[in-house]
């Protein structure tokens, strides 16, 4: 590793470190300006970081599986308000600090919609936690008994997805 690559490693610029030589060759062949060359490298580095951040949010959300609305069966249940559900995916409720409650019988897609909504929020740079309501409460009670409630509350993302399978009610904070 040369000195330049060591600086890139220190600055945590893995894309540029791995690709600067190839990009320099392409830039020379295409007669890019220095600014254009740097702009392309930085654009790719930023894209890599954004992708990693999304993957990190998805991992930290602890979804049991990843689901999207592309996978949702809109033919069941018959009475689902598709426009209303699709409107939730604009995520305005997060901006407005509103709650969303999905209620219905077993097997109509509440979990699927909740996971897909959380996944969409991750894609839009929102922190998500998918957990049962009872687990969330138990963690907070345990933290309170340990005198660490403030620290535990700081770990809760701005967008909290708590899902209680018995009542079928996901709540978003």
Automatic annotation (TrEMBL):
Gene3D superfamilies: P-loop containing nucleotide triphosphate hydrolases. InterPro entries: IstB_ATP-bd (IPR002611), P-loop_NTPase (IPR027417). GO terms for molecular function: ATP binding. One of its GO terms (biological process) is DNA replication. Residues 8-156 form the IstB-like ATP-binding domain. This is IstB2. The lineage of its organism: Bacteria, Pseudomonadati, Thermodesulfobacteriota, Desulfobacteria, Desulfobacterales. The gene is istB2.
């Amino acid at each position: 590793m040369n000195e330049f690559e060591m600086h890139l490693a220190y600055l945590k610029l893995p894309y540029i470190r791995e690709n600067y030589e190839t990009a320099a060759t392409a830039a020379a062949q295409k007669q890019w300006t220095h600014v254009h060359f740097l702009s392309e490298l930085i654009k790719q580095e930023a894209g890599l970081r954004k992708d990693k951040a999304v993957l990190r949010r998805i991992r930290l959300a602890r979804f049991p599986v990843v689901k999207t609305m592309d996978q949702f069966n809109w033919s069941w249940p018959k009475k689902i308000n598709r426009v209303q559900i699709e409107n939730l995916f604009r995520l305005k409720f997060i901006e407005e600090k509103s709650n969303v409650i999905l209620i219905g019988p077993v097997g109509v897609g509440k979990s699927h919609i909740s996971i897909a909504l959380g996944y969409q929020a991750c894609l839009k740079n929102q922190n998500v936690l998918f957990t049962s309501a009872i687990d969330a409460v138990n963690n907070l009670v345990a933290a309170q008994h340990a005198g660490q409630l403030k620290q535990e509350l700081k770990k809760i993302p701005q967008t909290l997805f708590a899902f209680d399978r018995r009542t079928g009610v996901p709540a978003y904070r």
